[in-house]
């Protein structure tokens, strides 16, 4: 898969079918668009492409309403490649870009990427002040002469699968349900940093991970997680919280990695949140905390590693 942006139009002599959308965190609702664009492009001997943004449009249009993000662009690229997409077009959403008229936007895609057709969701809007919608796109498809595929809403338990729905589930700690709507378990990427090293003294050394506050964080609590260190995935237990037993003040994300004994300070890791285990609690003694940690470890040992793309 190739990745291009506004500075590189690529080379699409055969033509492309392009899936359009903000794709704020790839989920199974997006799967219908992605599968459709790949299948149709393959059937017609064209390139499949996904057109999306490096930054969330609301960070420019209405910064005060910009949501916390579900995944970073590196993860989006990884998942789109795994789904068989030929090209990902990542565009910077700017004030100038925002003022592009709806028809001019579609014509630019036809001219820049040799687009022969588009795949969109049922509620897709585009162009300045969202003046473009599926009805204007249908009219333009007839007049200009390109294929158009409009996908119905994807449902789970009679509710539309959306980034907002998934974000709210994560904020409530309902990771099992959130993960059923994602391609892979919810993931945070960060660097291992130094901590108080209290876990080491208790026999449960933890890796303290940096985090970016522009991304959604699960509610405080203890989670069964999987952590990718290098190219290896390990079972792990992660605490998101304030370490009340030792009067912690700042929110931290600390992970105990099972069957692991390496120094990884400064390394980038990927932390996958699989299921919520329990609330964060304040224990009267460190011995009581250790007893609970032993129970957590036994629980984690009996879980399975996630299947990743």
Question: How would you explain this protein's 3D organization?
Answer:
This protein has 309 residues and is α/β, with parallel strands linked by helices. It contains 10 helices and 14 strands. The chain folds into 2 domains: 2-160, HUPs (Rossmann fold, 3-Layer(aba) Sandwich), CATH 3.40.50; 184-301, Riboflavin kinase-like (Elongation Factor Tu (Ef-tu), domain 3), CATH 2.40.30.30. The chain has helices spanning 28-44, 58-61, 73-82, 95-98, 102-113, 134-145, 163-171, 175-179, 198-202, 286-301; strands at residues 2-4, 16-20, 47-53, 87-91, 115-121, 147-151, 155-156, 159-160, 186-193, 206-209, 221-229, 232-241, 252-257, 268-278. Strand 7 and strand 8 (159-160) form a beta hairpin. The longest helix is centred in the N-terminal third of the chain and has 17 residues, at 28-44. The model has no long low-confidence stretch (mean pLDDT 93).
């Amino acid at each position: 898969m190739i990745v291009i942006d506004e500075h590189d139009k690529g080379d699409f002599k055969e033509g492309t079918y392009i899936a359009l959308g903000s794709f704020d965190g790839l989920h199974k609702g997006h799967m219908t668009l992605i599968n459709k664009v790949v299948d149709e492009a393959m059937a017609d001997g064209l390139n499949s492409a996904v057109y999306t943004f490096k930054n969330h449009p609301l960070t420019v249009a209405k910064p005060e309403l910009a949501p916390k993000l579900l995944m970073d662009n590196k993860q989006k690229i990884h998942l789109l490649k795994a789904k068989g997409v030929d090209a990902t077009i990542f565009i910077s959403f700017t004030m100038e870009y925002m003022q592009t008229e709806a028809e001019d936007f579609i014509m630019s895609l036809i001219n820049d990427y040799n687009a022969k057709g588009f795949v969109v969701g049922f509620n897709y809007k585009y162009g300045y002040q969202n003046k473009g919608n599926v009805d204007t796109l249908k009219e333009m498809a007839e007049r200009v002469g390109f294929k158009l595929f409009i996908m119905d809403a994807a449902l789970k338990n009679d509710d539309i699968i959306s980034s907002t729905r998934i974000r709210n589930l994560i904020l409530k700690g309902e990771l099992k349900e959130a993960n059923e709507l994602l391609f892979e378990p919810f993931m945070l990427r960060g660097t291992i940093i130094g901590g108080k090293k209290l876990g080491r003294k208790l026999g449960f050394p933890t890796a303290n991970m940096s985090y970016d506050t522009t991304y959604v964080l699960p509610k405080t609590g203890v989670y069964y997680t999987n952590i990718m260190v290098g190219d290896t995935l390990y079972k792990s237990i992660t605490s998101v919280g304030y370490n009340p037993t030792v009067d912690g003040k700042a929110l931290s994300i600390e992970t105990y990695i099972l069957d692991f004994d390496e120094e990884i300070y400064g390394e980038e890791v990927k932390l996958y949140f699989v299921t919520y285990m329990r609330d964060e609690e304040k224990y009267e003694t460190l011995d009581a905390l250790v007893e609970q940690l032993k129970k957590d470890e036994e629980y984690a040992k009996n879980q399975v590693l996630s299947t990743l793309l």
